[in-house]
Specification:
The complex is a heterotetramer, with two copies of chain A (336 residues) and two copies of chain B (325 residues).
Chain A (H helix, E strand, L loop, with lengths): L9 E5 L2 H13 L3 E5 L15 H5 L3 E3 L4 H13 L3 E8 L7 H8 L2 H4 L9 E6 L24 E3 L4 H13 L4 E6 L6 E5 L14 E4 L4 E5 L1 H16 L4 E5 L2 E3 L3 H11 L2 E5 L7 H12 L9 E4 L9 H7 L3 H12 L2
Parallel strand pairs in A: 2-3, 2-4, 4-5, 5-7, 6-7, 10-11, 10-13, 13-14
Antiparallel strand pairs in A: 1-8, 6-12, 9-11
Chain B lengths: L10 H26 L14 H8 L7 E5 L3 H6 L4 H9 L22 E5 L6 H14 L5 E6 L6 H13 L3 E7 L28 E5 L3 H16 L5 E6 L19 H7 L2 H11 L4 H24 L16
Parallel strand pairs in B: 1-2, 1-3, 3-4, 4-6, 5-6
Helix pairs in contact in B: 1-2, 1-9, 1-10, 2-7, 4-10, 5-6
The chains are: A alpha/beta (336), B alpha/beta (325).
The complex binds thiamine diphosphate (TPP) (2 copies) and magnesium ion (2 copies).
Chain lengths: 336, 325, 325, 336
C-alpha cells in the first residue's frame, strides 16, 4: 500500500460519494479549480456523485447544455487562461462524442504549441460494465486512449485511490482522464475527516495489493476485486498470488510489475474490455519484449469477449471475467 | 411558425389513436413498476405524458416509412407497431425480446415495422434518419423518415449537422422535437440560449411547426402536412411538440426540481384526457372510452405476463449477432 | 442584421491597419512562393484577400484579449502581433519557429500576444475561445475572445455547441465567420441549407452583424461594437465578414471551380485597395501609401531571410514539450 | 502473394488513382453502392483520388457539408434501407470528430438490434505520417479502433491490395474501415484493364511478401516497404527475413504469422504509431500468450515514439521507424 495512512481522524464513505468529497477538497484548496458538466450542479450529478458542490462553490460549478464537444473545448480554453477545469462526461461511452476534442485538442495542445502552455484539465467519466446499462453505456473506455500520447489515465479501484488520485489529477499540470467505475459506486472505504495532503495518491504508482510467490496478477477497478477473490480461492489450493493494481495506466508503473515478476516469473493480466488494443495486451507486449527472460510461462491476458457489452444479465455477467475464471487460468499457468 | 389546420381526424381514426396511447400508457406503468421492483437493471426512461407525440406522428406514416428515437423510445416503437410482448421482453432482457436481450430498455428496435431503433447517445440517431431519407430519395420509394428527440438534444452537434444536411439535400425527414421542458434535470432556459426551438428551423431552410404535443390531433395534422411535404420532394420539416414528462428523467429521479404546480397543470392536460374530450365531443360515450382503456390495459397486462414467462438468453448467445458471416 | 456605424477610425489608425495588412499580404506571397518551390511540405492555406478581417477584428482588441483561428490562420496570428520571423520559422519547421517546428503552417500560436492558436480540425477551436471567455467571466478580467472560422465550418457540430454555450452563459465571444464563399472547393449553396449565415445568430440568442469583409473599417466597427457588448457582460456576437480567398484552397488547388469573372470582381475590391481608397479620401498621398507598402514588404522579406537562415530542430527535440514534468 | 494474378490485360496505375478505379468498378457492378463525403464529387477529392466518379455516377456520388458525424450517420441510415454506402473521411485524424458514430453506432448497430440488420458501410480515410502535415493530419488512426468490436479494418500497402481490398470492403456485409496511406500515394502497381473479380483481395488474409528463415517481420503500409528494405540490408549480412503484411488488422490472420514463426522462432513487429494500445502490441501479446513455446527470443515491437507526430522534417522522419533501425533490431535478435 503506497498511500501513507497518518493518524488523522478518518470517516467512512463510499466510492460514489468520495468523488464529491475529493472535488470539494480541491475546489476549496485552489480557487483556480472550476467544474463543469451536464446536470453536475443543481441536480448533483446523474449519479449523485457531485451533490452539494454547486451550493458551496457557486459559479465555479456550472451546469452545461448537452454539448460534450463544447464542454471539453471550453475546459481547454479556460485552462489556457490559467484555470484548472474539471469536466464531467457523464458516461465514459460519451467520450466518443467529444473524442476529437480529447485526442486532437486536449492531448496535443501543449505539444503542438511547442510547450507554450500547460493544459491542466481533468476529465471525469463513469466507466465500465456490470450494471445492466447496455452496449452504449457500459464500455471500459480507458482503452480508447492508450495510443494517444498526451493524456494521463487513472483508473481508481478503491475509495482511497479515488480520493487520492482525483485530487492528484486536479493538481497535475497535464491533462488527466479519470475513469470512475460505475459498478464500484457502493464500495466502502475511509478518507480523512479533514482535507489532508497525506492522502494524495501519486499518479503513476502501482499498488501491490496482496503479496504472493507463485504468480503476478495485474488488474484494475472491478477486476482488481475479482483478482483478490481469485487469490483467496487460490490460497486454498496452496498457490499464492501477488495482486498488483497499477491504478494509473499512463504513465504505467512497469517497475513494480517487473519487481514482482522477478519473484513469481508468471504474469496474468485481467482486463475489463475486449482483448485487442487494450492496456492488458500493451503490458504483456512490453514485458515480453523487455523482460522475456523473467517469464517461465506464457504471459496471459484474461479479458472480456470481443463483442459489445450485452444488456441482459446472463450475457453481461459472462462478458466480464470472474474470480473462478482467473483462478483457473492461474492454476494452469503455475503447472506450466 | 406556420399555422396548422386541425380537425382532419375521423372518429374511428381517433379511437384507434386513443387505443394506442392507452396501450403505451399501460406499458410504461408496468415498466415503472418493474423497475421499482428491480426486475429490470440499468436505467429506464419512461414516456408517460408524451404519448400523443409518438402516436400522432406515426399515425401519419405509412408502411415503408421509418422512425428513429431515443432511450425514451418505448412509446415510439410501440406506436409504430412493435409487438407489446417482445418489447417487454427486450426490457426484461429476454431471449425472445425484440433484440434478443442485447439492447435492453434504451435500444428497442423492430425493423419489420420500420422502427430503426432507439439510440442511447443523445442526438446520434438524427443523422441515421437523414440517411434513411437519402436512400428514399435515391431509390425513389417516397418513404419518409421521422426522428424523435428531446429539447436537450437540440444543443448537441449532430442536431445541427443533421438538420443542415437534410435541408440542403431536401430530404423527406420529420424532425420531431419533443419539448418536455427538461434535459435530465436542467430546465431548458438554463441550457439553451434561445428557447424558441422551433425558430431554429429557418437556419436550415425548412419550415418549423410548433404544436400542442398533448393533443394527438394537433400532432397528427402537423405530421400529415410534413409528410406530404417530404413525399413530394420539398424537403424536411421541424415539428416542435410541446409536452411534458410525467415521470422523472429515469428511475432514480424524484424530480424535485419541478416548480410547484407544474406537474399538476400538465396532468390536467394529460394526452389521454385531451383525446377523450375530443372523442366525447364527437359523440363517443364515456363507457366506450372506459372500455377501450380497460381493454388496452388487459391486453398489455397479458403481454407482460407472456414476456415474464420467457427464458433468459444463454450466456453463449453473447457471441451471436455481431458479424455477418 | 444589425446596422453598423462606420467612419470611427482615424487616419493614423487606418495607416497602422494598412501597414499590417500589407505585411500579411507580403508574408503570404512569400509563403506561396516557398510552397511552389517545395521549401515547405504538407499543405498550406493562404490568407490573401481576407486581410481586412483579421486586421479589422484584432485592431478592436486590447492586451489580454485572445484569438483562435484555423489552418488559414497566418493572417490572424500576425495581426495579433506574432513576430514575422518566428512565424515564418514555424512554417519552415525551424527550431526557432513559434512552436519549435512541432506545429507548422496549420498551427501557428503565440500565447504571449494572446494568439491561442491555429487549429487544423474544422470547428475545433470555437469551444476553446468559449472557454477562454468563460475564464474571463469567472475571473472578471473583462477580456474578450475572438474566434475566426469559415463558412464551411458553420455546418459542423462544434459551431452549434459553441454558439449556444456562449449564448446561454452570455460570454464575451466574437464569433468571426469569414465567409469566403467556399469550403475547400464546394460553393456554400451546395453545402448549406440556408446560406444567410448571419441569421443563425438568432438561434443562439445573440446579435448577428454582416459586414463587408474587404473593408477593414467596416470590420473594425463591427468588432468594436461586439467587443463593447462582450466586455459589458451582454454576451457574444456573430460577425459574418463577406470576403474572398484569392488563392485556391491549398497549394494543390488551381481553383477551377470558380465562375468566370468572380475572382476579378473581388480583386477589384482587394482589401488593400479599399483601404488605400479610404486613406486617399483622408488625404494620404499615393507616394506615402506606396512607401508604406514597400516598407512592409522589405520588413517581411528581411524576416523571411532570417527565418531561412535558422537551424532545423534536432531529431531528439521531438521528445520535448509533451508533458509538464 | 495471395492475389491470384490471371492472364488478363493489366494497366499501370498508382496507389492514389487506384482508389477511384476501385470505387468506379464497384459503383458500376452494384447500383446499390453510393458514395458520399466532403468535396469527393465535383472536385474529385482533396487528394484527387475520386476524380471522375461524380461525372460518371451522378447522384450516387454526393458532396456533403463539413459534417463528419452526419456523413457517417447518413451512411448507416442508408445502409439500413438497403444501400451499400462508401463514406470518405478526408484525413483519418478527423475520425475523432465522428468517433461516436463510428464506434457507438456503426460498430454496434447490428449487435444491439440482435442481428436484425446488416450495415454494409465502408469508411475510407487518408492515413498516416511522413508527408509533413503536422500533428492533426498525420496520425495512423487504425490503432484507435482495435478495442471496438464490430469494425473490420483494412490497411492496404500496395496498389494491388488497395484495389482488391477496397472492392472487398464494399462487398462486405459488415462495416469496414479502409485506411489509405497518404505517403504511398505515388506508389506504382498494376490492376486489370477491365473489372475482374480475380483481383479481389479477401479481407483477413495476410500476404507473405518475402520468405526467409531467421526472423519474421510483420509490418503494414509504409512500414511494409521499410521492412522489405531492411530485409535487403539483412540479406547482405547473411540473415534472411520473412516479411508478412497482414493487410487486414481485424480480423487478423494470426495463422500465417504462427506458421512463419514455426520456422523462424523470432518475431519483430514494425508499427507506425505510438507503441501503446496498437495492433503491434496486440499481436505480440497474442503470440506470447498462445504460442510462447515458438519464441526463441523476445518478441519485439518497433514503433513510433510516444509523442504526437511533429511537423518539422527532422523530427517527423525520426518519429517513423526506418529500415536501418529495423535491421539493427533484427540483428540483435538473431544473436539472442
Ligand atoms: C451524448 C450524450 N450526452 C449525455 C447523455 C445523458 N443523457 C441522457 S438523457 C439526457 C437528457 C436528454 O434531454 P432531452 O433531449 O430533453 O430528452 P428527454 O430525456 O427530456 O426526453 C442526458 C443528458 C447521453 N445519453 N448522451
Ligand atoms: C473536421 C474537419 N473536416 C474536414 C477538414 C478538411 N478541410 C480543411 S479546410 C476545409 C474547408 C473549410 O472551409 P471553410 O470553413 O469555409 O474555411 P476556409 O478554408 O474557406 O477558410 C476542409 C473541409 C478538416 N480540416 N477538419
Ligand atoms: Mg427533454
Ligand atoms: Mg470558406
Amino acid at each position: 500500500m503506497t498511500t501513507t495512512m497518518t493518524a488523522a481522524a478518518t470517516v467512512d464513505i463510499n466510492y460514489r460519494k468520495v468523488i464529491a468529497r475529493a472535488l470539494a477538497d480541491e475546489l476549496a484548496t485552489d480557487t483556480k479549480v472550476v467544474f463543469l458538466g451536464e446536470d453536475v450542479g443543481a441536480a448533483g450529478g446523474a449519479f449523485k456523485s457531485t451533490e452539494g458542490l454547486k451550493q458551496r462553490f457557486g459559479d465555479r460549478v456550472r451546469d452545461t447544455p448537452i454539448s460534450e464537444q463544447a464542454i471539453i473545448g471550453a475546459a481547454v480554453g479556460a485552462a489556457l487562461m490559467g484555470l484548472r477545469p474539471v469536466a464531467e462526461i457523464m458516461f465514459a461511452d460519451f467520450a466518443g462524442v467529444c473524442f476529437d476534442q480529447l485526442v486532437n485538442t486536449l492531448a496535443k495542445y501543449r505539444y503542438t504549441s511547442g510547450g507554450q502552455a500547460r493544459v491542466p484539465v481533468t476529465v471525469r467519466m463513469a466507466n465500465g460494465a456490470g450494471a445492466g446499462f447496455g452496449p452504449q453505456h457500459s464500455q471500459p473506455a480507458e482503452n480508447w486512449f492508450l495510443n494517444i500520447p498526451g493524456l494521463k489515465i487513472v483508473v481508481p479501484g478503491t475509495v482511497e485511490d479515488m480520493y487520492g488520485l482525483l485530487r492528484s489529477a486536479i493538481r497535475d499540470d497535464n491533462p488527466v482522464l479519470v475513469f470512475e467505475h460505475k459498478n464500484l459506486f457502493a464500495l466502502k472505504g475511509r478518507v480523512p475527516a479533514e482535507p489532508d495532503d497525506a492522502y494524495l495518491v501519486p499518479i503513476g504508482e502501482a499498488d501491490v495489493v496482496r503479496t504472493g510467490q507463485d504468480v503476478t496478477i495485474v488488474a484494475t477497478q472491478q477486476m482488481r476485486h475479482r483478482a483478490l477473490e481469485a487469490a483467496d480461492q487460490l490460497a486454498a489450493t496452496g498457490v499464492t498470488a501477488e495482486v498488483i493494481d497499477p491504478r494509473t495506466l499512463v504513465p504505467f508503473d512497469l517497475k513494480t510489475v517487473v519487481q514482482s515478476l522477478r519473484k513469481t516469473s508468471r504474469l496474468v493480466v485481467v482486463q475489463e474490455g475486449p482483448p485487442d488494443g487494450g492496456w492488458g495486451a500493451t503490458l504483456i507486449a512490453s514485458i515480453s519484449s523487455h523482460h522475456f527472460e523473467l517469464l517461465d510461462a506464457p504471459p496471459t491476458l484474461i479479458a472480456s469477449d470481443p463483442v459489445p457489452v450485452p444488456y441482459s444479465t446472463p450475457m453481461e455477467d459472462a462478458w466480464l471475467p470472474d474470480a473462478s475464471r482467473i483462478a483457473a487460468v492461474v492454476l494452469q499457468l503455475v503447472r506450466f | 411558425m406556420t399555422a396548422v389546420q386541425t380537425e382532419t381526424v375521423t372518429r374511428d381514426r381517433l379511437l384507434e389513436m386513443q387505443r394506442r396511447m392507452c396501450e403505451i400508457r399501460a406499458f410504461e406503468d408496468i415498466v415503472k413498476d418493474w423497475f421499482s421492483r428491480a426486475l429490470v437493471r440499468g436505467s429506464t426512461h419512461l414516456y408517460q405524458g408524451q404519448e400523443a407525440v409518438a402516436v400522432g406522428i406515426t399515425s401519419a406514416l405509412r408502411r415503408g416509412d421509418t422512425t428513429t428515437c431515443t432511450y425514451r423510445g418505448h412509446g415510439t416503437v410501440l406506436a409504430q407497431g412493435a409487438p407489446l410482448d417482445r418489447s417487454f421482453g427486450e426490457i426484461l432482457g429476454k431471449a425472445n425480446g425484440l433484440c434478443g436481450g442485447k439492447g435492453g430498455s434504451m435500444h428497442l428496435a423492430d425493423l419489420s415495422v420500420g422502427a430503426l431503433g432507439s439510440f442511447a447517445i443523445v442526438g446520434a440517431h438524427l443523422p441515421i434518419s437523414v440517411g434513411a431519407a437519402w436512400a428514399s430519395q435515391l431509390l425513389g420509394t417516397g418513404a419518409v423518415s421521422a426522428t424523435f428527440f428531446g429539447d436537450g438534444a437540440a444543443n448537441i452537434g449532430t442536431f445541427h449537422e443533421a438538420l443542415n444536411l437534410a435541408g440542403v439535400w431536401k430530404l423527406p425527414v420529420l424532425f420531431v422535437l419533443e419539448n418536455n421542458l427538461y434535459g435530465e434535470y436542467s430546465p431548458i432556459t438554463t441550457t439553451t440560449a434561445n428557447p424558441e426551438l422551433v425558430d431554429r428551423a429557418a437556419a436550415y431552410g425548412m419550415p418549423g411547426l410548433r404544436v400542442d404535443g398533448n393533443d394527438v390531433v394537433a400532432v397528427f395534422d402537423a405530421a400529415a402536412s410534413a409528410v406530404a411535404r417530404g413525399r413530394s420532394g420539398q424537403g424536411p420539416t421541424l415539428i416542435e411538440a410541446m409536452t411534458y414528462r410525467q415521470s422523472g428523467h429515469s428511475r432514480s429521479d424524484p424530480a424535485k426540481y419541478r416548480p410547484a404546480g407544474e406537474l399538476e397543470g400538465w396532468l390536467a392536460r394529460d394526452p389521454l384526457t385531451v383525446a377523450e374530450r375530443r372523442l366525447h365531443d364527437m359523440g363517443v360515450e364515456t363507457a366506450e372510452l372506459d372500455r377501450l382503456r380497460a381493454d388496452a390495459e388487459a391486453k398489455v397486462r397479458r403481454a407482460a405476463e407472456r414476456a415474464l414467462s420467457w427464458p433468459e438468453p444463454r450466456p453463449e448467445d453473447r457471441f451471436e449477432d455481431l458479424w455477418v458471416h
